Amino acid sequence: MTTNGNGKAPVLVVLQMTGGNDFMNTLVPFTEGIYYDSRHTVRIEEDQVIKINDKLGFHPAATPLKEMYDNGDVAIIQGIGYENAIRSHFRAMDIMHTAEPNTIATEGWLAKAIRQIDPHGQNVLTGVSFGRGLPRAMAAPGVRVTSVGDLDSYGLMTSVEIKEDRAEAMDIFKRFYTPGIGSGPTMAYLQQTGDDVLTGIDRLQEVPGQYESTVEYEDNGLAKALRDVARTHIAGLGTQIFYVQHPGYDHHAIEMPAHEKLLGELSGALRDFMDDLREHDVAEEVVIYAFTEFGRRVQDNGSGTDHGSGGGAFIIGDRVEGGLYAEYPSMDPKTFANGEDLAHTFDFRGVYATLLEQWMSVDSVDIVNGKYEQLQPFKTA
């Protein structure tokens, strides 16, 4: 079992890059001629790539992430996916949230983990999501979690305003998930969860006043969400699973400036978050998993890229053994999925199993519905 260095409970922060991050333009295969032959517009020139070896390099906007990688704190998981990958945003994200590609599931993978961590539901803050709406990964009947927009806003709200805001968030959940799983499971969950969230918010309202830091986060939604994670963790409220979202990665058009902006926000927010944790001597307890629902196609469309497969993810933290994991998808067109996508090289459920078992000490078999090959991305001493 991996230890976090100080005997305290392990914490997992899941960061969702919503929309399908273009992994080829995040970790660029700059020696592959087919990359440049396939992408006449949406590409990173070799002299702009921040190289990590003689074949791959980061997008230039990801300089802070590259610095963290050089320090050994970033594991890059290449080629994440599953057989017969789906290109629908709703279904692909649904699969990532439930770890079930073949059927429509009603329980999120993190909710199942929370059930193991806190089987009697004693702490409504064991799982906390910061952002609009409740991620399905955190939702399951009987599992108590808290979902809030941001700490500063909630600290100023009256109880009536909080209830109204919560009702809006629940409505988002209902409208998003009822078409996929039916009104019965959706409504059963919503009826059970409302009071739990209000209880959690009452406890979270005290957090901002207990926090001081010299780290100045940037002014964007992801940075604010990660700052809220840091503040809540530092307050010691027993949260072991956090969820944050970074939207905007569905780049069918004008990808170059939009993707640059997002990767800059992502990299800067992650750097500031880790600096904040280290300043408060709690970084050893936290691991971040940053994922997306699918990759983009090899060929650009002249202005952007369309939905594909063979994406990638990051595991970040002081307890991480940084480096490249799994294999970068083959750039040989004969291997392309659907004749135009990067084929996956590592099953996403194996990544979940790695995080659950090696970091969180949670049995993964029932959560990912089987046994899958795992990685070894954590320091063992």
Question: Can you describe what's shown?
Answer:
- It is a single chain.
- The longest helix is centred in the C-terminal third of the chain and has 25 residues.
- Strand 10 and strand 11 form a beta hairpin.
- 38% of the residues lie in helices and 16% in strands.
- The protein is α/β, with parallel strands linked by helices and 381 residues long.
- The strands form three sheets. Strands 1, 5, 6, 7, 8, 9, 12, 13 and 14 form a nine-stranded mixed sheet that branches. The protein has a three-stranded antiparallel sheet with strand order 2-4-3. A two-stranded antiparallel sheet has the order 10-11.
- The chain has one domain: 3-Layer(aba) Sandwich (Alkaline Phosphatase, subunit A).
- The mean pLDDT is 90.
- Helix 7 packs antiparallel against helix 8.
- It contains twelve helices and 14 strands.
Briefly characterize the structure.
The protein has twelve helices and 14 strands. It has 381 residues and is α/β, with parallel strands linked by helices.
Count of DSSP-assigned helices: 12
Let me know the number of strands.
14
How large is the radius of gyration?
20 Å
Mean pLDDT: 90
Helix content: 25-40%
Annotated CATH architecture: 3-Layer(aba) Sandwich
> What is the first-to-last residue Cα distance?
10 Å
- Which shape, going by the Cα principal axes? globular
- As for the CATH topology, it is Alkaline Phosphatase, subunit A
Specify the biggest β-sheet.
Answer: 9 strands, mixed
Q: How many domains make up the coordinates?
A: 1
Based on secondary structure, the structural category is alpha/beta
Strand content: 15-25%
N-to-C SSE string, H for helix and E for strand: EHEHEEHEHHEEHHHHEHEEEEEEHH
Which regions contain 5 or more consecutive residues with pLDDT less than 50? none
Assigned CATH class: Alpha Beta
